[in-house]
Each structure stands twice: as structure tokens, then as C-alpha cells.
Design a protein that fits this description.
119 residues; 2 domains; 3-stranded antiparallel beta sheet; mainly alpha; single chain; Arc Repressor Mutant, subunit A; 6 helices
């Protein structure tokens, strides 16, 4: 399993950290108790797992990210394209748009991105 693939609960936990960082581990445990109904031990276990995967760091009780939320989701998206579409972004877009019609606004946004990439 890739270090950048998170389950739904791990994703919620990661978002809590990104929204509150830097955050003390004790404060993180309080937030997780309120938002996820987790015991302190559960928070620390999941935190250690995500630190071991290189997403977060717990330095002297202060938790912060090693990778931004934006970069994390970009890497996760790249892995989906690589794993499922042999790295072909056009194949991904074709598959995505075959089941969901893109709105004119979405098409314009994609075209603007393409134009910016061309310089």
C-alpha cells in the first residue's frame, strides 16, 4: 500500500492536523475525542502510523505536516492516474467524463489550466 493512500478515517484525522497545525499532541487528542470520539491511545496510534509514513512529524509533542494538504492530494491523484490509467491523464479524463458530463464551467477551467501550462 502506498504511503499516500489513506482510508476515510485516516483522511479525516489528517485534515484535523492540517487545519490545526502546529498542534500539541495533547490538544490533538482532545480534538479527536470531540470530533472522532477517539481515545487518546487511538489518536497516538494513528498519529504514529502517519508519522512513520512520512506525512506528519511529532517533534517534542508538537505535531506538524511534512507534506502540505495540497501536495498530499496532488500526489494521491498522481498515484490514481499511474496505477489505474498507466500514467495517462487523457485516459483518466476520458474515463471520468464518460460517466459524468463536464459542465461548460469545468471545461473552461480545464482549458484555462492547459493554456497556462503551455505558457
Amino acid at each position: 500500500m502506498s504511503e499516500y493512500k489513506l482510508g476515510p478515517v485516516e483522511t479525516k484525522f489528517a485534515e484535523i492536523i492540517w487545519n490545526n497545525e502546529p498542534v500539541s499532541s495533547s490538544q490533538l487528542a482532545k480534538i479527536c475525542l470531540a470530533e472522532l470520539e477517539w481515545k487518546k491511545s487511538t489518536t497516538y496510534t494513528v498519529l504514529k502510523r502517519l508519522c512513520d509514513r512520512g506525512i506528519f512529524v511529532n517533534n517534542s509533542g508538537i505535531v506538524s505536516s511534512l507534506i502540505s494538504e495540497k501536495d498530499f492530494y496532488a500526489l494521491q491523484s498522481e498515484e490514481v492516474v499511474n496505477d489505474s490509467f498507466s500514467g495517462s491523464l487523457p485516459a483518466f479524463v476520458a474515463a471520468f467524463s464518460s460517466r459524468k458530463k463536464l459542465s461548460d464551467e469545468e471545461i473552461n477551467q480545464l482549458q484555462d489550466m492547459i493554456n497556462k501550462m503551455r505558457g
